[in-house]
Fold this sequence. Notes:
Blueprint: H1 24-45, H2 51-73, H3 81-105, H4 111-118, H5 121-132, H6 140-157, H7 168-191, H8 199-221, H9 230-258, H10 260-263, H11 270-280, H12 289-305, H13 309-340
Helix pairs in contact: 1-4, 1-9, 1-11, 2-3, 2-8, 2-9, 3-7, 3-8, 4-7, 4-11, 5-6, 5-7, 6-12
Amino acid sequence: MSVTTTPVTPAPSVTPKSRRALGWHLRFGILSLIWGFSFLLIKVGTDGYAPFQVTLGRLAFGTVVIAAVLVVKRERLPRGARTWGHLVVAAFLLNALPFSLFAYAELTIPSTLAGICNAASPLWGMALSLVALSEDRPTRRRVAGLGLGFFGVLTVLGAWQGFSGLDFGGTAMALLASLSYPIGWIYVRRTLAGSGHSNLSLSGAQLLVATVELAVVTPLFTSFPTHFPVVPLLAIVALGALGTGLAFLIQYGLVAEVGPTTAQMVTYFVPVIATAAGVAVLGESLSWSTPVGAVIILAGAALTQSKPRTASRAVRSSSRAVRSSSRAVRSSTRAVRSSTRPPRTDHS
């Protein structure tokens, strides 16, 4: 699943003494599995509870995990009305809204399709950043990636068949959920970056606010459960404790150790795992266009995130030019010194 929170302060450097016991490759794989299975857990949870109830439980259990870590590390929640005001918006865009949309979407669409729709999030993010962030400039590579990625979305949806057999409502909600994430990231980047608070503190506060938001909304649209199915309840507990709480802690460690670029590569593995889990565990059907479109989407997303080699080539060329100029200067200096040296007089 897409990142639920965005690091907004520089991650601390990781020395060999502070390096995690588990290698980062293993933790990267665990994070991919957790987020990939999140869509299956949502599907199971909505079999016994209303979508808002699934989201509320998810946020509540996730908040408990982060709160426990905050207590152990003796970190405090952020202070200041301005910061909390921004956190209200961030919690809505990054947690309350997308979590609820995915839960409602999976009432009518398979978890495999929801996971693949989630993969469109980097495409939305690139398209929005080109408009909202002045430092992100469009390049041919990025534009090609956007075009390829959205062609993949059309492939998944079976556009050439007139979208036959597709639930428009559920699919639209899943795509809107994937759009909500980059909107939230851009908002956080503009409002909370450099706030002086740690990522863990901000994320704990953000999840707490999102839990309160769902606690207010859920009773208005659902009734209290008359019975509590065990399997869906366990799915919600796992979705919150693992898919929200533990997943963020793993991602936080990965960002600190290997950097955000490598940590965000998990996005490309999530739809693959979500598809495999939905087919193998839930027995969901899979047409050829779904995996083919997913591969196209991931290829497009990879293009939008990659950096052209021309820049590095230009840097190397400039370095070579500087070195050549330096050698030329040194040669000219030696020539000048030789020409100004007085002629040698023979006193013999």
